[in-house]
C-alpha cells in the first residue's frame, strides 16, 4: 500500500461508531495506523496545534471502515474486466476499506497458490482484500476443495459463488468439514433446474419481452435447504444476495428458531425492479435477477428488522464483450462498489435505516460475519476509516467510474451522498477531488 | 384529421410498438399491393436501387422466401445471409456482423434470430431500417400482420370477433404478435394449451386463458392452432404428442362448437394429426394458403412504408 505520514487528524466530523455507542462531533487523531485519540469538539486538546496533516470534516460523517463482503475482482484470469488493484481502487473510491473477493476466477481460487497470488497483488491495492476460497474443487460441485490449506494461505470464508452447491450431500459434508478449519460457508442459493435457461425475473414482463424467466422459488427453495442443513449440523451459513420477499421471510423464521444463519442483500435489490430491464438493457441483467416492487418492499423490511445482516455489492465487472450482446447471451452481473454508499444513504433519508444501522450493515456485521478486523473506531482499533459527505450530490457518469468495467444500471443517475476520504490502516487510500 | 396521418416507423420490431392506426394503415397498404401479385408482370419499380439484406440466424424457408419475393416484386436488390449460430459462436458477435453489413450501406435489414430482442440491439447500432422476421420467443410482427389481414379479408372486420389460439403459447412468437395485434384491433383473444405452455402473465398481454379446447373454441370466429415443437426435450412440457392431439388438437368435433363460418388458421408448417386433423387443415374453412399469399403483400407494404416514411431521403 502507498506510504504516508504516521499521523493524521480528522477535525470537526460527526463520529458514528455504534460499537462504542458514540455519535458525536469530535476530532480523531490517528497515529501509527491506530485510532489514537478522540476528543469531542469544543474540548481542549493537545494536538490541534501540532503540525499534522489534517482534514476539516465539518458536516461529514466519520465511520468505521466499510467492508464489502461480496465482490468479484476477476484476477487471475479476466484482468481485462478488473484486477485486484483496479477493483480495490474502485472500492476505496466507494468508501470501502476492505472487500471479500469471490473465488470464481480463472483458475478458480480453490488452492493455496491462487489465494497467495491474490494476496500478493493486494499488497499494491487500495483496500484490504479477504479472499474467499472455493467449497468444491474448481467449483464443480463434486469434491471438497482443500479448506485447511486455503485457510493457511489466508481465505476467510468459502463459497462456490456464481453457482450453487447443487448436491445436498456435498453441502452437508462441506458444512461439517468447515468446523475443522473454522471457516464460514457463503451460499449462492439457486435451484438450477428451475433457473438455468432464465434471463430475468419470471412474470408478465419476461413474457412480454419473450425472455425465459427465473421464478422466485428457484432462490427460496435453496435458501431453505441451505439453512436446514446448516442447522442440522450446527454450522453457520451465510446466504448471499437475497432478492425476494419469501427469502426474507424464510430467513426471518429461521433466525427466530435460532438457526445459525446470516444474510446479505445488495443495493440493486432494494433500489431497482425488473422494470429496469426496459428494452433488453443488459446492464440490468444479474443473477439473481431484479424482482418486483413487492420484493423491494420486503427487502427493505428485512433491513429494517434485522433479518438481513449486511449490504454487499456483488460487484461483478464485465466488459462490453460480455454485455453488448443479445440479452439472453449477456453475462450476469453489475459493478457496485462506487454506488453502494449513495444508494444506502437513500434508505437513511427514506427513514428505513438510521446512520447507526447503516454502519452495522456495511461495517460491523460484515466484519463479525467474516471474523475479520474492523467495525469499530474505539481507541486502539486499527484505523480503517470511511468519511462520507451525506449531502454531496453528483452524477454517476461513465467517465468517472474508477472500476475497469462500466456495467452499471446507475450510469447517469443523480446520486446523493459520497465517500470523500478512505483510510486503511492509517493511510489515505482515496480522497475526493 | 385523418389525412394528417403519416406512417413514421423506421423499424418494425414488434406489434407492441405499432398503434391501431399504424396497423390499419399497413393492412390497407398491403391490400393495395396484393393486386400486384396477380399481374402477369409481378414487379413495380418502387424500391429500385434499394438494398435489402436478409440476415437469418435460424433456418427458415417460408418466411425468408416470402420476404425475398416481396422485396424482388418491389425491385429492391436483395442479399441473403444465413449466419448459423455456430459460426456466431466462433467469435463473431451479432454486432460484429451488423457492423460489417452496415459498411455495405443496406437500406433495410430483415433479421431472424433465436435471441429475443436482437432486432432491437441491431437497430440501436446501425443506420439501416430493421425488420424483425422473428426473434426468439418475443415477436414475429409480419406474421401477426398477415394473420390480421387474412381475418379482416375473410370477415370484413376484426373488432368484436373471438379469436381462439391453441397450443404452445409460451414458445410461440407468432402467438405473442397475434395476441397483441388482435387485442389492439378490438378482438377477444382466448388462448388454450397445456398449462405448461401458457406463460406467466399472459393475461396482461390481453389474452383470456381457457382450460379446455371446448371452452376456447366455443363460439369462436377464428381457430388458430400453433406448431408444437417436437424437439423440446430438456423441459418436460407434455407427456406425448398423442395425448396432446387428444386434448388440444383441433378435431372435427371441436370445430362444430365454433361459429359455422369459423376460419381455421395455422402459421405453418403443420404437424397434421397433432395440432389439427388433416381434413380440417385442408378443409373448406381453412385459410392457411391465404395466410401465405397475404404474407407477401404485408411484407411488400412494410418495405414500402419504411422507405417512404416521413423524413427518409
Ligand atoms: Zn452469487
Can you give a write-up of this model?
The complex is a heterodimer of chains A (433) and B (313). Chain A is of the alpha/beta class and 433 residues long. Chain A has one domain (63-370): Metal-dependent hydrolases (TIM Barrel, Alpha-Beta Barrel). Chain A is built from 13 helices and 18 strands. Chain A has helices at residues 84-93, 112-122, 147-153, 168-181, 192-195, 204-209, 217-232, 245-256, 267-271, 293-304, 320-323, 340-350, 355-370, and strands at residues 7-17, 22-31, 34-40, 54-56, 61-64, 66-71, 96-101, 128-133, 157-158, 184-187, 200-201, 213-214, 237-239, 261-265, 310-311, 385-395, 414-424, 427-431. The model of chain A has no long low-confidence stretch (mean pLDDT 96). By secondary structure, chain B is an alpha/beta fold. Chain B is built from twelve helices and nine strands. Chain B has helices at residues 20-34, 62-73, 85-89, 94-102, 118-125, 141-155, 173-184, 213-217, 241-248, 252-255, 278-281, 288-307, and strands at 51-56, 77-82, 108-113, 129-135, 162-166, 188-192, 207-210, 222-225, 263-265. Chain B has a five-stranded parallel sheet. In chain B, β3 (108-113), α5 and β4 (129-135) form a beta-alpha-beta unit. In chain B, α6 crosses α12 (288-307). The two termini of chain B are 25 Å apart. The model of chain B has no long low-confidence stretch (mean pLDDT 91). Chains A and B meet through α6 of A and α5 of B. The structure holds zinc ion (ZN). Zinc ion (ZN) binds at residues 161-162, 188, 240-241 of chain A.
Short précis:
Chain A is built from 13 helices and 18 strands.
The secondary-structure class of chain B comes to alpha/beta
Largest pleated sheet of chain B: 5 strands, parallel
Q: From the coordinates shown, what is the CATH architecture of chain A?
A: Alpha-Beta Barrel
What is the tally of beta strands of chain B? 9
Roughly what fraction of the amino acids of chain B lie in strands? 5-15%
Assembly classification: heterodimer
Evaluate the radius of gyration of chain B.
19 Å
Number of helices of chain B: 12
Biggest sheet statistics of chain A: 8 strands, mixed
What's the average pLDDT of chain B?
91
The average pLDDT score of chain A comes to 96
Give the end-to-end Cα distance of chain B, rounded to a whole number of Å: 25 Å
Small molecules bound: zinc ion
Shape of chain B: globular
